[in-house]
Amino acid sequence: MSIQTADHIASFEPGPGRWIETAGRVTGAPGKPGVIVLGGISAHRRLVADGTGPGWWPGVAGPGGALDPARYRLLSFDFLAETVAPFPTIHDQARALAALADAAGFDRFSVVGASYGGTIALALAAMAPQRVSRIAVLAAAGRVHPMATAWRSIQRDIVRFALARNDGAGGVDLARRLAMTTYRTAEEFEQRFRDPDPDSRDAAGVAAYLKTRGADYAAKTPPQRFLALSRSMDEVELDLSAIRCPVALLGFESDRLVPPADVEWTAAQLADARCEIAASLYGHDGFLKEPARVNAFLEDLL
């Protein structure tokens, strides 16, 4: 079966007389069902690995995963960021996706959204109930926990402080290091860094690990993009009563950014929802680090 990849460009109007261009990519076999796939703020249009680099959801999106391009046409996109002032809302992202779906020929489709992408999936289902057949929401909820906002507000202030000193990249580096401590769990760091194998990748210690993660992220994320997307994550306003399609939610017991109680609250507001809470060593990053659990969850839905 032929797997095809095509980039699409579309425009939408976030306000009167102002048009924004958005870019996405479809990977999959012609004629297969359409699925829009969205991740955290590090996600982008290259969902499935290709000759230019890895996909952003390995083990889940790709051959053999629940999101196999031999079974579906998969659409992912580059999030709107600093091009929408002062920041893009999740509804702006949903409108951009609807325009890309038009460009790609997706009339009716499913949506899989994790982390930030999960809130966008909810926004899209509320905005276009006639087009969305079902959605899966992982490590995301219909409301933002105040502690998550507190952590992100500190990260934004770090970046602004650094920008004022002409070191925006250094600010993004430090903000990402702090963010990693909120994504993961104390239990994981205990196992990895308390007494690491001298020959393991963790032998250099937790500070070296965080420096690597920060530097990698800062190398590909401009400060203004980080600030715009971070702010967008904290401005979630959703009419959950407008969602009519089936919704499956997967939360993680150890997730401190999106606690299980908020996932369960979201399910209770929806007309047709089921909710699962899974154990994970990896906290909020369970959707990235638990591919077997995520694949089983998505197979049940799709």
From TrEMBL:
User: Domain AB hydrolase-1 spans what residues?
Assistant: 67-291
Q: Name one GO biological process term.
A: methionine biosynthetic process
Enzyme superclass (EC)? transferase
Protein name in UniProt:
Homoserine O-succinyltransferase
**Any Pfam family the entry gives:** Abhydrolase_1
What PANTHER family does the record tag this protein with?
A: HOMOSERINE O-ACETYLTRANSFERASE
Q: Enumerate the UniProt keywords alphabetically.
A: Acyltransferase, Transferase
Top-level taxon: Bacteria
Record EC number: 2.3.1.46
A Gene Ontology molecular function term for this protein is:
homoserine O-succinyltransferase activity
Spell out the InterPro entries in the cross-references: AB_hydrolase_1 (IPR000073), AB_hydrolase_fold (IPR029058), HAT_MetX-like (IPR008220)
